[in-house]
Amino acid sequence: MPGRHLNQVQIDDLLTYVGVTKRRWKVNGDSCQFCCPIHKESRPSCGVSASLQLFHCFSCSAAGTFDYFLHKALPDEFRNMKQAAEFIRSQYNVDVSLFNDEYLERIMRYEDFYNKEETPRKVKPLHSIAPFRGGEETYQYFYDRGFDDGMLEWFRVGYDTLHRTVTLPVFWEDYTLAGVIGRYIYPRSKAERYKVYDGFMRGDLLFPIDKVVHDGEVVLVEGVFDALRLYQYGHRNVLATMTSSLTPTQVKWLANNTDSVVLMYDNDTQGYNATQKVIRQLKSHVNLHVVSYPDRPEAKDPCDLTRKEVQAMLNTKRSHYSKVIARL
Questions:
Q1: Distance in angstroms (rounded) separating the CA atoms of residues 218 and 212
Q2: Whole-angstrom Cα distance, residue 186 to residue 286?
Q3: Helix pair 81-92, 66-73: axis angle to 10 deg
Q4: Cα R_g (the chain), whole angstroms
């Protein structure tokens, strides 16, 4: 009797059949990411789940079962889903047309997480950052914190003379402008360190999503200046949440684009609480690692760390689960 599920080897074979030449399986072996063969993209935004027996493309929004995937990827060869289902049955002895209540429940859980209607991407014109030009106060603020001219230029750092903030433009992955965030040079309190311009929705993306380079692992920090510090030290796999917790959109991006996340939130009570919240949000999607700050009182966040301290923290990162076991 035919089975109901394609295993990883069979899914790999099916992907090869439709022309997918490169794919990256997550370490748990359940899902992989690749360039969508339906709309012929060049950057991978499509994925499959072995446990759910479903595929989903975050770019063209195509999603469904493997017979639908085969039909959409090769419409000239498989003119309908029935032909695709018959091919899968004959090729792999798997009947994808058989459903039961548990299988349908899995699909509903999948759709709850991945297929929520999202707010359309908001793009601002580049001239929005034209008024924010670097000045003496901006440069001194950066130099005092160990940054150099290269960082000022690379991140297009500016200065708002009215509000006296150092400004940072935030871009989407395709380098279009999402918004501007500012850091007060003379903040009245820790809670008022940042100014968000024009109602910019920080939770729509991570910073700097247009510059991040990673091979399955991302270091997650709280603030944009924490990210700048690690970039200054040569780490390109760093992203800042810009908020104390992750939004569903940010969780979705991390779940679909990374295998492992290293949490390097602030070294205080607020940072600890934020870390625990992010762990709850991500633990079912990626492998999680935590770090230990050096034992000196002034090491409050990544901006207070030296290059060697950051590297030592990353070298000694620990799995979140091993840390839990050690406590027990």
A1: 9
A2: 38
A3: 110
A4: 23
Indicate the residue type of 112.
D
Q: How far is CA 42 from CA 35, 37, 74, 256, in A?
A: 6, 10, 18, 16
C-alpha span between 266 and 291 (Å, rounded):
11
- Cα gap 44→33, rounded to integer Å: 6
Distances in whole angstroms, Cα of residue 234 to Cα of each of 20, 213, 316: 33, 11, 18
Residues paired with residue 63 on neighbouring β-strands, in sequence order: 56
Token pair belonging to 212: 């991040």
- Whose structure tokens read 């990411």? 33
Q: Please report which helix (H) or strand (E) contains residue 103, including its range.
A: helix 101-114
Q: Sheet harboring 46-49: ordered strands across?
A: 24-25, 31-34, 46-49, 54-57, 63-64
- The token pair that represents 78 in the structure block: 């498989």
Q: Which helix (H) or strand (E) holds 321?
A: helix 320-327
pLDDT per residue as tens digits for the range 64-101: 788 889 989 999 999 887 888 899 999 999 987 654 44
Q: Give 25's strand partners.
A: 32
CB 156 within 8 A of CB 182: no
Q: What is the pLDDT of residues 117-163, one digit of tens each?
A: 455 678 888 888 888 876 676 778 778 888 888 888 889 888 888 88
Largest pairwise CA distance in the chain: 76
Phi-psi region of 64 (alpha: psi -120 to 50; beta: other; left: phi over 0): left
Q: Amino acid letter at 253?
A: W
Is the whole model's pTM more than 0.90, yes or no?
A: no
Question: What one-character DSSP code corresponds to residue 290?
Answer: E
